[in-house]
């Protein structure tokens, strides 16, 4: 089988993440957005279109847009907050090739409580040591470049941003790595919320051990790719036609 060109592969990867997120319960209606910069065109990005459920999106449905809100390629429109959040983060943080924004339930639950943080109490949480920024200044729905720029600044060089009373943003260099972080972030938040419901104190580890474990997990980065490829195989098995490339 011939390898796909980089843009086609990007479309397939972003579709994989969207459909997997729907299978994992990380989506919300037809809201929220996943995006990635177009290979060899840092001024453009691919993003899911307005009005389609993540479980029905194919590579052909993804929209290519620029930072000014113009649709360069695609038959659908893009929801406004996708431009104001994703375009500004892509433009302001060159490391953020992929930007995934969700209101996934357990992580979002932590954004809704006073001083909600991912605590260093489970192995899944340790991978996020010193990688999360917290935006404690909710300012309404993101409908301006200024709000997107504020979120970008709030990330402060971190990979992940918790948005108070809102949701989370996870960024990274590839779709596989970024989706893996999104998936395990929700798992870490879920176990923490369940533990908090017991009413007993969390048993956090110290900073030195958390950092050591985070480095160990980072050294096994191939796991993210293996996870992502397994998600594609499951989609091939269960959802024929998901790789459609022609409109």
The portion of residues assigned to helices is 40-55%
Rg is: 18 Å
Count of the domains = 1
Biggest sheet features: 8 strands, mixed
Strand content: 15-25%
Give the termini distance in whole angstroms: 22 Å
Outline: globular
* CATH superfamily placement: Class II aldolase/adducin N-terminal domain
- The name of the CATH architecture is 3-Layer(aba) Sandwich
Query: Number of helical runs?
Result: 8
User: Can you tell me the CATH class?
Assistant: Alpha Beta
Strand order of the largest sheet: 4-3-2-1-5-8-7-6
Q: SSE string, helix = H, strand = E?
A: HEEEEHEHHEHEEHHH
CATH topology: L-fuculose-1-phosphate Aldolase
Layout of strands and helices, then pairs:
Blueprint: H1 6-23, E1 33-38, E2 41-47, E3 63-66, E4 71-73, H2 80-92, E5 98-102, H3 105-111, H4 123-126, E6 132-135, H5 145-155, E7 160-163, E8 167-172, H6 175-196, H7 207-218, H8 222-238
Helix pairs in contact: 1-6, 1-8, 2-5, 3-6, 6-8
Please name the defining characteristics of this protein.
16% strand; 8 helices; single chain; L-fuculose-1-phosphate Aldolase; 8-stranded mixed beta sheet; alpha+beta; 247 residues
Structure commentary:
This protein is an alpha+beta fold and 247 residues long. It has one domain: L-fuculose-1-phosphate Aldolase (3-Layer(aba) Sandwich). It is 42% helix and 16% strand. The chain has eight helices and eight strands. The chain has helices at residues 6-23, 80-92, 105-111, 123-126, 145-155, 175-196, 207-218, 222-238; strands at residues 33-38, 41-47, 63-66, 71-73, 98-102, 132-135, 160-163, 167-172. The protein has an eight-stranded mixed β-sheet, with helices on both faces. A hairpin with a 4-residue loop joins β3 (63-66) and β4 (71-73). α1 packs parallel to α6 (175-196), α2 packs across α5 and α3 (105-111) packs across α6 (175-196). The radius of gyration is 18 Å and the shape is globular. The two termini are 22 Å apart. 40% of the residues are buried. The model has no long low-confidence stretch (mean pLDDT 95).
């Amino acid at each position: 089988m011939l390898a796909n060109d980089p843009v086609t592969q990007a479309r397939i990867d972003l579709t994989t993440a969207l459909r997997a997120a729907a299978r994992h319960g990380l989506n919300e209606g037809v809201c929220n957005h996943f995006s990635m910069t177009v290979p060899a065109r840092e001024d453009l990005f691919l993003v899911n279109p307005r009005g389609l459920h993540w479980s029905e999106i194919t590579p052909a449905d993804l929209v290519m847009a620029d930072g000014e809100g113009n649709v360069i390629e695609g038959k659908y429109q893009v929801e406004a907050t996708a431009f104001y959040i994703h375009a500004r983060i892509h433009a302001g943080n060159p490391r953020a090739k992929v930007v995934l924004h969700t209101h996934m339930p357990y992580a979002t639950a932590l954004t809704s409580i006073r001083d909600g943080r991912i605590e260093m109490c489970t192995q899944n949480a340790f991978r996020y040591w010193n990688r999360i920024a917290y935006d404690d200044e909710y300012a309404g729905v993101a409908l301006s470049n200024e709000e997107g720029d504020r979120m970008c600044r709030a990330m402060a060089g971190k990979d992940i941003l918790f948005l108070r009373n809102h949701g989370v943003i996870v960024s990274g260099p590839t779709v596989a790595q970024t989706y893996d972080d999104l998936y395990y972030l929700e798992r870490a938040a879920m176990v923490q919320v369940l533990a908090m419901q017991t009413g007993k104190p969390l048993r956090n580890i110290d900073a030195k051990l958390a950092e050591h474990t985070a480095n160990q997990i980072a050294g096994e980065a191939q796991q993210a790719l293996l996870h992502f490829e397994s998600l594609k195989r499951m989609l091939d098995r269960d959802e024929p036609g998901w790789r459609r490339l022609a409109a």
